[in-house]
Amino acid sequence: MVNIQKAAVIGCGFVGSSIAFALTQTGVFSELVLIDVNRDKAQGEAMDLAHGLPFARPMKILAGDYPDLRECALVIITAGANQKPEETRLDLVHKNVAILKTVIPQIVRYNREAILLIVSNPVDILTWAAQKLSGLPACQVIGSGTVLDTARLKYLLSQHLNVDARSVHAVIIGEHGDSELAVWSGANVSGVDLDHFCELCGHTAHRENMERIYRDVRDSAYEIIEKKGATYYGIAATVKRIALCIVRDEHSVLPVSTQLGGLYGVEDLCMSVPTVVGRAGAERVLEIELSPEERQAFHASAVTLRQVADELGL
Which residues span the domain enclosing 299? Predict the structure, then answer.
C-alpha cells in the first residue's frame, strides 16, 4: 500500500530543490524523501527545508536512498544534465536516458505502485523511455509536459489583453520544445472567442500578435537560461500543481506528457496533450478538436519525437 501523503524527489539540483520547497508549502504531504547522487547535497537541502517547517505545516523531510521510496505515492524525477545556452532540450537526450537507466530499475525494485512524474528534459522522450524501462502501466508514468508552456501562454495572453491569467483558456500541445504548438482554434477568455476578445480590447492584428506570443512562449526558456543559467521557479510551480491533482484526486485537465495509444493518429509515443489527472495518474487522454493546420503541426511534432525515440532502441 502507498501513503498518498508521501512523495520523493530524485535529483536535488536547482529544479529538484525548488520543487521540494514548493511541495513543503502545500501542507498536504506528511513525508518528503530527497535523493541525489551527491548525498551531502540532499542532506543539505533536507536540513534547509526542514528549518522552514515552523512557518509551514509539520512533515518529515529526509535525505534518503532508494529503499526509502517504499510507500511513496509520487516519485518526481528531476535528475539529469541541465540545458545549456544554445542547447535544445532534445540535445540532452542520450545523457539523460543513460541516467534514467540507472534510476528507474532502483525505483521499481522498491516501489511499483507510485506515480512516476518525469520532469527532466527532453521530458516527452524521457517519459516514453521511463515507461519502457519501468514496465509500469502507461497511466502511472507521466511527464510535466507542456503544463509550464501553457502557463506561459496564459500569462503572456493575460498581459496582452490586461485580464487575469486564470480567465484565459488556451493550451500548448505536442513536444515540450521547439516543435510545440498553440491550439489557437479553441482559445477563449471565459468563453469569449479569443479573436473577438482581442477586438474588444482594440487588437486586430490577430495573426501577427499570436505568432509573436507563440514565439515568446516557445523561446522563453532559452531567454531565461541565457540570463540566469537555468529555469526552476516556473517548473516548481508546475510540478506542485500536478502533484496536488494527484494527491487530491482532482481529475483536473492538464497537458501532461503521456502515452497517446493511437489518439491523434500517434502510436507508442509520449506527447503533451490535455489529460485528466488524478490519483491514478493519467486517467484519460483527451483528443481535442484541432484545425487542419494544427493537426498538421502536431503530426510534425510527433515525427520530430519519433526520430529521436527510434535512435534510442528501447
Answer: 147-312
* Extended beta strands in the chain, E state: 3-10, 31-35, 60-63, 72-77, 115-118, 141-143, 168-169, 172-173, 181-182, 188-189, 192-193, 252-254, 257-259, 270-272, 275-278, 281-285
In this structure, are 276 and 199 located in the same domain? yes
CATH number at residue 112: 3.40.50.720
Same domain (yes/no): 134, 170: no
pTM score of the predicted model: 0.95
CA distance 75 to 299: 30
What is the per-residue pLDDT for 68?
97
Cα-flanking dihedrals φ and ψ of residue 46, to 5°? -60, -45
Cα–Cα distance measured from residue 306 to residue 222, given in angstroms and rounded to the nearest whole number: 23
Q: What is the pLDDT of residues 11-43, one digit of tens each?
A: 999 999 999 999 999 999 999 999 999 999 999
Report, as residue numbers or ranges, the catalytic residues. Answer: 176
